Amino acid sequence: MSKIVQCIPNFSEGKNITTIKKLIDVAKSTAGVTLVDHSSDENHNRSVFTLIGSPEGVEEVLVKLSKIARDNIDMTKHFGKHPRMGSTDVIALVPIKNITMEETVKLSEKIGERIYNELEIPVMLYANSAKKENRINLANIRKGEFEGMSKKLLEEKWTPDFGENKIHPTAGITAIGARSPMIAFNVNLNTNNLEIANNIARIIRGSSGGFKNCKAIGLLLEDKNIVQVSINMMDYNKLPLYRIFEIIKLEAKKYGVTILESEIIGLTPGKALVDSAIYYLQMNNFDYNTQVLENYLFD
User: Fold this and answer.
1) Catalytic residue selected from 38, 78, 82, 168
2) Which CATH architecture does the domain made up of 4-178 adopt?
3) Backbone phi, then psi, for 215, in 5-degree steps?
4) 82 catalytically annotated
5) Which residues are paired to 91 by β-bridges?
6) pLDDT by residue (tens digit) across 164-202?
7) Which of 129, 169, 183, 266 could make an S-S bridge to 233, C-beta 3.0–4.6 Å?
8) Domain 183-298 class in CATH
9) Where on the tree of life does the source sit, at the highest rank (predicted)?
């Protein structure tokens, strides 16, 4: 049976159409993988790709994409709202079919080793791939961002898993990790007061005493003159989207602010949306496994 892996590389470029097109072309032309989604955000100055394919295809495309990013994205000139530390900032690998998490971890190690050996970009392993406890959480690795990473790597506890204690001068450093499905979920508010978004993010994220399976930061979207609560939902089975949405709505109301819209970046498991539909439509005894037509079509 064929093994299928999902990979989600994040690139520190959301403005330069030429560079983004080069990345798309490589993603579409590499055998063994399919580009199923890509999005670019100028405020974040970041592009997120989602590909699925064989372990061999995923390995090959990620090395190729990392080379394009290295050669076309200069981190010394990069500025964006989203935290970042490298041209290929982070690569997530998710086991989808006929492949275990352990096998996916080994794949992440193989890719990390190749990226350093072939491109001279140091790599740290995170999430399920992490070899040290302080690297499980991606935010811990990325703290200090590109500008502070050279000094950070001099500390023994932050020695890269692959590479020396120094960043690539223009491409920075990359984090690679195997993990369970995650949902990138953003909620936009009808205010330009960043303090409000920061306060709400602080309330909901696990590191500040909020929800264990939630990571969140506040961002100012200058082109829209509004703020955003940018969220990573780490386990939608334990923390559904609607619960976070309702908490944000409640907290925003205290400031006389409402939600303008929400968005999902990249792909999401269908069940995460169905769970919210069940909640808002107040459906009784709905069974996702037996009552969703597409489940039978996919089988």
Assistant:
1) 82
2) 2-Layer Sandwich (3.30)
3) -120, 140
4) yes
5) 9, 176
6) 999 999 999 999 999 988 999 999 999 999 999 999 999
7) 183
8) alpha beta
9) Bacteria
